[in-house]
Every structure is written in C-alpha cells, then in structure tokens.
Amino acid sequence: MKSSVAVLPPFLVLDQLLQSWLLEDIGRGDRTTQSLLSQNPTDKEAKWIAKAPGIIAGLPVAARVFQLLNHQVNFANITAEGAKCEPGQVIAEIGGSLDALLMGERVALNLTMRLSGIASLTNVYVEKIADLPAQLVDTRKTTPGLRILEKYATTLGGAINHRMGLDDAVMIKDNHIVAAGGIGEAITRARSHIPYPLTIEVETETLAQVREALDYKADIIMLDNMPLKMMSQAVSLIRQENSRVKIEASGNVNLETIRAVAETGVDYISTSAPITQSRWLDLSMKMV
C-alpha cells in the first residue's frame, strides 16, 4: 500500500456533529435504558466484534461518542485503527456506565461500520495499483454531514484526499468552461481573483482542451472520461510541454479499469466509488 497519512480533525470540530447525531437518536430520552436502569445504575463491560473481514476505521470517533455521554467510559482499541480484521476478531473493549454504553451503541457502531466499509473498499482499489506511481484520490461525492469523516476513512484505506470543499482550490469543470466561454477565459478570470497559494485545475475531454489548458498554465489537468489511447496521448503531450503540471484521470473508474488507467502514466486517479459504492463493515457490540 502506498503511504498515506490519516488525520482526524480536532474534536472541537467533530463534537458538534457527534452531539447532533446523539440527539437525533436519543430524542427526549432512551425509554428502554432509562426504564430498566433508573433504580440500578451500574458499570459494565462490552466487546466490539467483527462479523466480516475488512479495514477498521473510526475507533477514535466511537470512543468520543461514548465519552460525550460519560467522560469516564474507557474505550480500548484491541485492533489498531487502520488495521485489517477477520470475522470473530475483537475490535475494542469498552467499560463504564451501562446507560452510556447502551445509549451510545448505535451511533458509535453506525459511524464505525460506515467508515470501515469505506476504508475497506478504498484499500481494494489501492491494491490494484500499488506497484504503479499513480495515486488514488477521493472526490466531493460524500454524504452531507459526513464528508470530513468519510475522507478520513479513504486515507486509512490508502488513498489521498482531493479538495475538501469549494474553497480549497479552483477546479474548472465543463459547466464552468461553458459559462466562461472557454478554458483560457476561465483560467484568466480565476487567476485574477484567487489568493496566491491556490492551485487551478482544469477538466479536459479532448486533446485540444489539454493544449489550451497548457497554454494558459493550469497547475493540474484532469483527463475526464477519455479513451485510454487518447489519455496516453494527453499524458505524453503534457509531459513534453511542462513536466511540472500534475495529471489526474477521472470518469468511470472501477476495479476493472483502474489499472489500465494508471498504466497511462497519470499522477492521480480520482473516483467516488470507494465512498459511494462501499458497504458497511458488519460489527456488533456484546456485553461481557
């Protein structure tokens, strides 16, 4: 697997999201847990167990969910974050107030299963091109409210993040080109407005558009939905004209096509599939 660095944002950023998801689930109160435990508060221990093979992602987030309910809950990783797991494997051990364990169970499991599914499928894609220079990149096709975590999961699977949002970089796509009246005009307008450090990426579908993007000095050129032969020609053209320009391939990338795309010599391959097509990794919590 190519190296990637998975870094969660500080909980200052995440806590508001986690609290809102807990409130969505708990509502006006956990009727079941509060009915059973109102006279008998107690501490218990539980284990998280994998029911399918995959890559584990989201354990620090799960731990935080429980600690928001009761800061004395202890959440111990038995399987490391980002490590592979097998069915029956113990993923984590949790101890603390039983009401916190029961009220936090579903939110914590849902997030971990979702993120682990993304990390697992991402890793399958990454392994397809692990011996080639091209790197897998995610996209902005994410679940509203979960982007920051879903993109964290792709990095655990071995991919790297594309821009997090519209303010990260300029990406001039087909509709922008139409609106501006051409690639050259779009790049010229963007460059006159954006702060210095931002890069400009241009989506191209033909060799003529690639040439125009080069002429107007785009930092990154995306080859969108190009046939492999044309993609190889575009890579050769860009390398000959300006070796500093980065090349990204995108469009209809799947497990059957990703290796052939990487073999054209592109730097990055972007696809939404690891997020949009992943299945949750099945996990369960069992009281000891």
3D architecture notes:
This protein is α/β, with parallel strands linked by helices and 288 residues long. It has eleven helices and twelve strands. The strands form three sheets. The chain has a six-stranded parallel sheet with strand order 6-11-10-9-8-7. Pathway: Cofactor biosynthesis; NAD(+) biosynthesis; nicotinate D-ribonucleotide from quinolinate: step 1/1. Keywords: Glycosyltransferase, Pyridine nucleotide biosynthesis, Transferase. Residues 118-286 form the Quinolinate phosphoribosyl transferase C-terminal domain. Pfam families: QRPTase_C, QRPTase_N.
Strand line-up across the major sheet: 6-11-10-9-8-7
Structural class call reads alpha/beta
Counting DSSP H or I runs of 4 or more residues, the number of helices is: 11
For the secondary structure, the number of strands is 12
Shape: elongated
Write the element-wise H/E pattern from the N-terminal end onward. Answer: HHEEHEEEHEHEHHEHEHEHEHE
Biggest sheet overview: 6 strands, parallel
C-alpha-based Rg, rounded: 23 Å
Multimerization status: single chain
Helical content band: 40-55%
Low-confidence stretches: none
How far from one another are the termini? 36 Å
Mean pLDDT: 95
Beta fraction of the residues? Answer: 15-25%
Function: Involved in the catabolism of quinolinic acid (QA).
EC number: 2.4.2.19
Catalytic activity: nicotinate beta-D-ribonucleotide + CO2 + diphosphate = quinolinate + 5-phospho-alpha-D-ribose 1-diphosphate + 2 H(+)
Pfam family, one: QRPTase_C
